[in-house]
## 1
Amino acid sequence: MKERRRASTDASSSSADLKSSGKNNAKRPPKSKRGGIVRKVCPGSTALLLGICVVALGVAALYWIGALSPAMEEPVRPRAVTPLPVPRVSDLKQFKGEYRERMFWGTYRPQNYLGIRSRTPQSLLAGLMWLGVKDGRYAIRHTCEESDKLARYGWLRHDGSTYGRQELLDQGVTLTTSFLKSWEDGSGYGGDWAVRIKVEAENATESSQEDGQPKSRSTSIFFYIAEEAGRSLSFWPKGKNVADAPFVGGSASEIGGWQFHLHHKEDVAVSYAGLRQIHMHNLTQLVLNTLMNQGRLTGRLQLPDSSDRHSNIAVLQISGSLPFEVDMVFLSGVDKKGADVPKRLKNLTGVELERRLIQKEQEFENRFQDTFKLNEKVGGEKEVEVGRAALSNMVGGIGYFHGQSRIAIPAEFKGQEPELSSPDYWLYWPAELFTAVPSRSFFPRGFLWDEGFHQLLISRWDRNISLDIIAHWLDLMNVDGWIPREQILGAEARSKVPEEFVIQHTSNANPPALMLVIRRLALSLELDLKQGQAREEDMEYFKTMYPRLQAWFNWFNTTQSGKQPGTYYWHGRDSHTSRELNPKTLTSGLDDYPRASHPTDDERHVDLWCWMAHAAETMSLIARLTGEPHESYEATANGLTNLTRLNEMHYDLESGHYYDYGLHTEEVKLRWKELKDPRIKTGIPQRILRRVVLKKPKLGWVPHFGYVSFFPFALRIIPADSTIMGHHLALLHSHDLLWTEFGLRSLATTSSVFMKHNTEHDAPYWRGPVWMNMNYLILSALYKYSQEEGHYKKTAALLYPQLRDNLIRNVVKQYHESGYLWENYDLKSKGKGQGSHPFSGWTSLILLIMGEMY
Ligand SMILES: *[C@@H]1O[C@H](CO)[C@@H](O)[C@H](O)[C@H]1NC(C)=O
Ligand SMILES: *[C@@H]1O[C@H](CO)[C@@H](O)[C@H](O)[C@H]1NC(C)=O
Ligand SMILES: *[C@@H]1O[C@H](CO)[C@@H](O)[C@H](O)[C@H]1NC(C)=O
Ligand SMILES: *[C@@H]1O[C@H](CO)[C@@H](O)[C@H](O)[C@H]1NC(C)=O
Ligand SMILES: *[C@@H]1O[C@H](CO)[C@@H](O)[C@H](O)[C@H]1NC(C)=O
Ligand SMILES: *[C@@H]1O[C@H](CO)[C@@H](O)[C@H](O)[C@H]1NC(C)=O
């Protein structure tokens, strides 16, 4: 699902590639929808767009007149952007009160190296920047960018709510950022917080020299506070003793009066600027411009110590020779009686802060040990260190986003506009999303199927946070039961995504992986109920969630069904492509994993079958727990877990492999062709790769063996003592197929597209490399099979530790060598991490693997 979008940050990848992907998206077959329109459909301003909007509104008006009684005044929204009309799960009492206040502030801007905000649509934002060098020029480090080439960064400790410690290594300098929240007598809503930033030379203890330069170098860091709502800030004159005076302050709804203080003990130079700008997505440029202007005027890269009228952004610059350390403190409710600012300030700076940070480290460590018990489970400190980083980056990567998704307008609402016209879309309702992210640099936003895996880990660390995140996702469901699979909310998020990919299609699915964690939670509720100790609020949670899950299940069960009753396929593959070796299936989450060469509605996808079986079983369980009718889910689950039926639809007796079914030929190749662009008369012919089909496709099995073939095993539909089970253990261990010393590869070496490019620029993605989410699912099944009575218990028990060791060994090695967890692991280069990094989304499942928590 996460299409590799090198183009968004890497200028070297071709624009041709981008265009064609955009086209794929645009070609999704329309889904028929009823309903009227429309409140807000004319974003953008070009004449063409306006024309389209007028047409759309015209069509809409027709629907509208037909669909509504004259008594109704509010225009109806199109169904696609109408919320499911049931109570929101995130409105439950358990997410208000104490919980909400505790979670108010956080490092909820994971796309920044250090970014703090509150969980409100318009927040005070805080963040760290520093001066680096990129391509021989000064550059501001601010948003996480792979092109910054930091040697390493990430949270080493983070508890998800009150404390975190991060290290960033950049060009020989180490920045350590510690974040602490605190509630004291006199604090306003959400409490106070402090950030300590330590700046030192990398390897400070060694007396070596770097690049022939002496180690005593100086550097500048910046810290800002910005009012998203645009309210202006008050600045205090720079006193001699900065420690005693606030630097900037203001007043904001909920938290009341606030002050921001800087405290330092070393001799550092402090300057500042007050700026006015309501577009927060280009703060980096704003600060760089301010600095460059000063540079031209004074010859020094130093902020001007002045502020614009009505400044809503305060930037502090702190320069000093390494090492130095500063404490920054945010105090809320300073206008309340008994606020006692000096006392609170003392408690959050200097030695007091030091003491509290040490205490928080200890608390983290104890809780980490209690939760994952790694000391009993893995070899040593090298592994445990990776475990801590995996957890900390996962929970430290949780973000709060607010905004409106853009939704493609279904075809029947559109005029006859030419293909590839400028984007035209509807806006989803304004919504909040609290979610973890796959990668702070490359995918710093919510992804539906990733989130199911993220919550497997987070729910073990802090169940409340997990419940909250799941609630936010389910609340994004529209009246048809659809959830946009990629959440690009707000300008800051959008600034990281090329325009072509922003628009979401209501016909597109994405695996219901949230059901994995929902089932886990339901099983624990079932146990609590049996022991008579179920909490009222857990029951409430499941009851409130239930109608949403029903709508969600039904959406899959109806829109993704196959021609044969009770079968499924991922709808929306491109059947007209002449560029792709095998048309991608982004909706499945496995992007370029090979499917039928010729997409038709005869297709059957075995992974979706298994997801539906798992979802139906989960629904049946929840229905029973909450006293709802469960019969139809049970019947559907029985049908989908019936091995005879599954085998009829997906089992190739000859090879003993589970396969997709469809119109397919193995004889498809990419060939170079010379093409002339008809629009350019004198143009030189271009050489491009085109797909050629050398043999007529036939209906039948799609003989690619890989992760998809292992779904009946991974989701444990194969009974423990069936002969198919025994056969699958042999398949699992076959070195020609998926087994490697670094984990299970995504596609067998025997597949005709193993490690093949899909287009000239589309490198193999799910066609060989090792991915942690699928390894976790398969390993987890292996573990459970090794515990279940049956003929194959012993074999499973033999393979399980081998696969587990392989995964742990490689991820731990790669982390220590490269400083990161990676998107996936390559085989040609002996298990090296590749793709986006840090990728602390599902790769962090390595911690559950270490702790044997399945
Ligand atoms: C989770 O929330 C419940 C109340 O809703 C509370 O009793 C419990 O202590 C919370 N757990 C954590 C880890 O915060
Ligand atoms: C610091 O030490 C590590 C390991 O010894 C080395 O790889 C790295 O290059 C050193 N960094 C600097 C800036 O000297
Ligand atoms: C300072 O912090 C400690 C907790 O570490 C707390 O017990 C004490 O009450 C705080 N002092 C003030 C003035 O709030
Ligand atoms: C910031 O973004 C806004 C809106 O996209 C734009 O108008 C403005 O020029 C940008 N400012 C800078 C400094 O890039
Ligand atoms: C799912 O779809 C199948 C086929 O249309 C239907 O028979 C079954 O009842 C549906 N299941 C549920 C729970 O709605
Ligand atoms: C499984 O499906 C087959 C074929 O549809 C059917 O004959 C059989 O009764 C089913 N088994 C169970 C246990 O429902």
## 2
Amino acid sequence: MTGSPIWHPFTQHGLVDPIPEVVRAEGAALHTREGRRVIDAISSWWVTTHGHAHPRIAAAIAEQAARLDQIIFAGWTHEPAETVAAGLRAIMPECLTRVFFSDSGSTSVEVALKMALGYWLHRGEPRHRILVLEHGYHGDTIGAMSVGARGAFNRAYEPLLFDVETIPFPGEGREQAALDALERACSAGAAAFIVEPLILGAGGMLAYSAHTLKAMHAICVRHGVLFIADEVMTGWGRTGSLLACDQAHVSPDILCLSKGLTGGAIPLAVTMASEPVFAAHYAEDRARMFFHSSSYTANPIACAAAAANLAIWREEPVRERVADLSRRQAAALAALSDHPRASNLRHLGTIAALDIGAAEGYLSDLAPRLLRFFREHDVLLRPLGNTVYVMPPYCIGDDDLDRIYRVIACALDEV
Ligand SMILES: *Cc1c(COP(=O)(O)O)cnc(C)c1O
């Protein structure tokens, strides 16, 4: 599209790459204005779980839009929101008794941080130090950037980001160093520890063990430091289980969900909180209420999509699809293991990743060259630096998955 006034996200308009126009999507396929069929190998940036235009979700959105489109949520409620909250209570960790709505993964993280600080203030022992995991990513608003890794993407804003204490990434062989650092940081007193459970997404699809996740949680429990699980990417089956935390039998104090919450059809997020976090804000004193809202908090149309997603999880064999895709991903990835330019092959649930050549960082020119190659071959893949990952919708067929890996194999040879 030339002459468009649109300023695209994470896009350098000074480079002349074409911006394809998508007119329709279905299952794992995107159809462009030019009539090309593109395989969505990254679930449209990790959001589409069941597949594009799932009939139940699409119908729920249409029906709700005609019935009740929007209503202020401060002091008012509606059925779709109540259905989502009850549905989440039924399948999310038992201790998470409260559901707070917002609009995106980033806002769910902002809410989580504000809840943690409110918890400590209202208990009469104010704490504000936040512990984070090295290479973490939690969104692009100022607070979410503050608890994420610093780099090229936030250099301009760094003077405004608040200080956090970073725990080293617990990669293989470095688990104990990370646990020791966390133990020290918790002993010194901290409000909360925020983590992406089991796998760091934007940080490069870096996985660590369930055992380590469990040990990190245990340290926080021992010191009374709130444990915030950011499952914005890992939730809804991505890592093979409903939540990544499930694999470590960890119940966080605060849980962030977004992306797959509506099946990826429409923006919505929730921050779930344990009863003590809610109780700290509960009083007859208006000064202690939770001061957060946005215009579209718990928008009924978005909630109807989330309610449909929850029904799909209850009534369709989603867990079987996830298990099946996980097996196929593992097999397809293994077939690339002998390639001399592929390294660091890793696989967790429906996510598979590998590195091409040597690490060159996010701004290396390998990524745009790969991006171009994949686009020319009608596959939507968006490498993170020299890391190529495959994270398709759960409905993807064998032919499409095979094609993704054939194109990656060609890229290994040619790019
Ligand atoms: C994508 C992501 C976010 C931010 O979500 P948005 O909806 O893009 O604001 C936060 N945390 C994690 C782990 C993510 O992957």
